Amino acid sequence: MLPALLPTVAVLAVGLVAAAAQSLGLLPLVGEPRLTLDAYRAVLDGPSLREGLVLSVALAAASTAVAVCVGFAVAVLVRRTRLGGRLVSVLAAATVPVPHLVGAAAIGLLLADSGLVARLVGAEPGSFPALVAGPWWVAVVAEYAWKESAFVAVVVLGALAAHETSLDEAAATLGARPAQRLRRVTLPLAAPALVATGGITFAYVVGSYEVAWLLGRTVPEPLPVLAYRLFTDIDLATRPEAMAVAVVTVTTASVAVAVTALALRRLGALR
Amino acid sequence: MTSRLQKRPRRAARAAAALAAAGLMLGACGAPAGDAAADPEAQSEPMDWDAVTAEARGQQVSLWMYGGDDRGNAYVDEVLAPAAQELGVDLRRVPVVDTADALNRVLTEQQAGRDDGSVDLVWVNGENFRSGRQADAWECGWAGSLPNSRFVDPEDPLLAEDFGTPVEGCEAPWHKAQFVLAYDSARVQDPPGDLDSLLAWAQEHPGRFTYPAPPDFTGSAFLRQALYDVAGGPSQVPADFDADVAAPLWQRLADVAPSLWREGGTYPRDLAQLEELYAGGQVDFTMTYGPSTLEDLVADGTFPATTRVLPLGGSLGNASFLAVPANATHAAGAKVVADLALSPEQQLAKADPQVWGQYTVLDPSALPPEAAEQLSRFTGSDVVPPFSELSRGALPELPAGWVAPLEDAWRDQVLRR
């Protein structure tokens, strides 16, 4: 474990410390280092950070909700059906390693105004709903939900593999109806896996750049898109602001992880 | 492999520098070594070209350039590099996502006090050239004395200033570019003749026009083109950013915005997305600072065959250059490559639409007759007219100091209207 952990922690720690130091004016590209909150004040001054935070959290919440529901449904389907179930589980396992960037490009080709779906349904120019770069960020949520639901399903299937069959059969023998068994047996067994994957999905979406950049709107910008734009600005003075946005992003994702850990402890999965 | 090849000359250079420093200390007994070493270098004009070519022989020159243009990469690897090899220079292309990355590398190495820089030559213009000049990152006073600069018109305003920054021999010209708008003549029967009528056309045809969101390079060029139009020409635009001059532009663009694609609530993130929209028939106009790409896109069927360049009656033009960092390890080799790239043979090969289609910086009237004749054979096509026609009434680029403030103000005034 240690050989894997050490480089991960080292890279992460160095990156985070450097980002925090730059955001606090301690590593300027031009001028003298000086401890200051100017970068934070600058990003708090405009609407971009607030809008970005709201948008990032909303995107993460929507994607997580859909991914957890769909992922759980897929896992149950796989457990309850034979041939179809096996096919679905292979599909889910194959989806997990697809890079998000590739997924985003594929969703773009599928859902754009002149994309595959629009052509299949024969939509008149201008009549197809604005899914890509539209006001509701449908394509972005769809991409995250699709990819992450496969991840949820694979993990939930692993959690159910141990005891579900015997407990489910026992409940059936005792006369429990399918809906009761789902609520009293399957859901409690899957709950820790659902909470953990939900937390991971949320934190991932908050920090993810490429999907929102490819399929999203110009304004408002999710936090990572905002941070990268500030980072690549010709004006070198905006680098600390980019780092301030990055620190806010990391903090948001960390809060999600902490809440997940608390929930898992309450469920008794973490001790 | 490359790292092994690169290490040797670097280590040799470091050893040479150390020896030189030691020699200076012994000889001058604590004289300001830095100045003494730098001075003869800066005053090398007019340069002894034979000495430069002799020194260049055997050097490995790394040319840092934007790597996202396949035909540009192919030209450098398959045409320019073999020609450099004949002069004894081993030209290596280092692709970068953004020219600013190359400049950052130079500045970082300079900050670290390294005079054996890993960047020998950079394809650069505009803001990056200006930033580099501010930091004294370029070697200056050499470009005008290259042998092949005799084919360049010394009065050419596009080559004397780079986005308003005087060139002063700190970079050698490489290509010219012209900003153009293009439209689908099958769908636009009455093409607008200038930018103002284009915006009026957009208002009459809701959802059929848009432009890439600045800071995208092409979207930013569109802003500058529109600024000239609204302000009434280059003479009305002062050297430094002036919010009052730009204000009418924001008013005009904000007025048009509700008639743009997606009601102006969002814009294509970059030129690639605008080209996708145009190819998919979502909008009727596209734009580019590299007109020859239009011919490719039409030829491979991405764009409709009825695509035409919109005659604007004077559009933005610029030139791009090759600059040698002040701390380049192989400055002599880099200058030999810059001179080679400026030769009529290379400029003609590069101007061939089949090769790269980058317009020449040379003055046709100064060229040898056969080269001039060859140049006149690039007559353009149905899609893109020849450069002589495109560049008629060309407008100089805005001073570099305008670029960033314009992009920021667009975000506040138009995007968040």
Structure overview:
The complex is a heterodimer of chains A (271) and B (417). Chain A is an all-alpha fold and 271 residues long. Chain A has twelve helices and no strands. Chain A has helices at 2-23, 38-45, 48-80, 83-95, 100-111, 116-120, 138-161, 164-173, 178-207, 210-215, 223-231, 239-267. Chain B has 417 residues and is α/β, with parallel strands linked by helices. In chain B, 45% of the residues lie in helices and 12% in strands. Chain B has helices spanning 2-28, 33-42, 49-56, 70-86, 99-111, 126-134, 157-160, 195-204, 217-231, 243-256, 271-279, 292-299, 331-342, 344-351, 369-376, 387-390, 403-415, and strands spanning 60-66, 90-96, 121-124, 161-162, 165-166, 171-178, 180-184, 285-288, 307-309, 316-323, 395-396. In chain B, strands 1, 2, 3, 6, 10 and 11 form a six-stranded mixed β-sheet that branches. In chain B, helix 3 packs across helix 13, helix 9 crosses helix 10 and helix 10 crosses helix 17. Chain B is globular and about 65 Å long. Residues 1-44 of chain B have low confidence and may be disordered. Classes of the chains: A mainly alpha (271), B alpha/beta (417). The interface between A and B is medium-sized, with 20 and 22 residues.
What is the N-to-C order of secondary-structure elements of chain B (H for helix, E for strand)?
HHHEHEHEHHEEEEHHHHEHEEHHHHEH
Mean pLDDT of chain B: 87
Question: Describe the biggest sheet of chain B?
Answer: 6 strands, mixed
- Proportion of beta-strand residues of chain A: under 5%
Distance between the termini of chain A: 20 Å
The best one-word shape of chain A is globular
Q: Can you give the mean pLDDT of chain A?
A: 92
Number of helices of chain B: 17
As residue ranges, the low-confidence spans of chain A are none
Helix/strand-derived class of chain B?
alpha/beta
Described by the principal axes of the CA atoms, the overall outline of chain B is: globular
What is the percent of helical residues of chain B? 40-55%
Number of helices of chain A: 12
What about the largest sheet of chain A? none
Largest interface: A-B, 20 and 22 residues
Which strand-content bin applies to the residues of chain B? 5-15%
How far is it from the N-terminal to the C-terminal residue of chain B, by CA?
Answer: 54 Å
Rounded to an integer, what's the Rg of chain A over CA atoms?
22 Å
**Assembly type of the shown chains?**
heterodimer
- One letter per element, helices H and strands E, the order of chain A comes to HHHHHHHHHHHH
